[in-house]
Amino acid sequence: MNSDEPLDVLVYLPATPPRRLTGRSSMTVDDVLRLAAIDTRLFVIAVDDDADDTDADLEAVLVAREAALHELARGRVVSIHCHHCHAIRVTVNYQKHTIHRKFLPSTRAQKVLHWAKRKLHLTDMDADNLALFLCDGGQQVRDTTHLGELPIGHHCEVCLDLSKDHNIEGCK
Amino acid sequence: MMADIESGPDERALREDIAAPAFLAGEANGYWAIVAIAWPEVFAWIAAGDRKNAPTRFHVRARCARYPHRGPTGTFWDPEGKAPLSHARWPKGRSRVKHVFRTNWEDGVAFYHPYDGLALEKHPDWPQKYPKKLWTRNHTIADWLAEFHELLNSDEYEGV
User: Fold this and answer.
1) Which of A66, A104, B26, B75 has an alpha carbon 20 to 30 Å from B142's alpha carbon atom?
2) For the domain that residue B135 is a member of, what is the CATH number?
3) How far are the Cα atoms of A14, B8, B157 from residue B14, in angstroms, in the given order?
4) Is residue B3 part of a domain?
5) CB contact under 8 A, A140 and B132
6) What does the alpha-carbon distance between residue A7 and residue A15 come to, in Å, rounded to a whole number?
7) Distance from CA of A108 to the nearest CA of B (A)
8) Between chains, do B146 and A142 touch, taking CB under 8 Å as contact?
């Protein structure tokens, strides 16, 4: 990769949608954080791969601030996840069941959804239409949302309800 | 894709929204992209989950007149034929996918969802039935694309 090559840099911060910046492949994570005036006390968490899920609690791998963007790029995109939590304890409620597991701020909600369906032994038919909603207020959490984008308190916990989304119905 | 000085408030609003972080992040992650704008029609693609013998993305045409007061009216699009996608090539699936991407309502000129401008207009009971699914002027084209991207990547999507 050419050191001057422009890259799309997505910066994920606590409880906010991502910011998209343009960087150069030779820039470091620290360069980006300084340019974007991001709180230096936040941890920089590595991207969580959706694959190879063993259902165990996840432990964060921190990204060195000296890391060059080209080392972190997937194609032309670099994702930088900044958060005050190393890990987030997720509680999922489904009917009378409550399950817990630690994920990362860089974990997408889809991974939580798939884990919850597996853990609760929900078959295809039972699992159709199931979606995650924030326990407070009931707002649906999109599959592509990273947990760090959700309102996470200082205790690094989030509560989600697993329940049925609507089928849109009207005339035949 | 610059707007010319003649563009109206709906087109300007849409162009502002495709420069906003929510849209740009989805684009950078490969969830969607705008292919062309021929106002009031916007042509885009939405990535779909891997399914046997199915495309990895679906093209859509969104009619965006009166955006953002009215949600875009969407249909799947054939970019080679420059025409609506034949129903046989529409995404298929169960539950939400089956309901939203139905071809037997208005001949498939709109998505059967309260975010769709035409579908909402034709269903005055939907605001009461689906208050959390309702398009409002605070929604953006990124919300619209994200909603259908989610369906095309859900377990209920089975391919074409």
Assistant:
1) A104
2) 3.10.110.10
3) 27, 10, 28
4) no
5) yes
6) 24
7) 12
8) yes
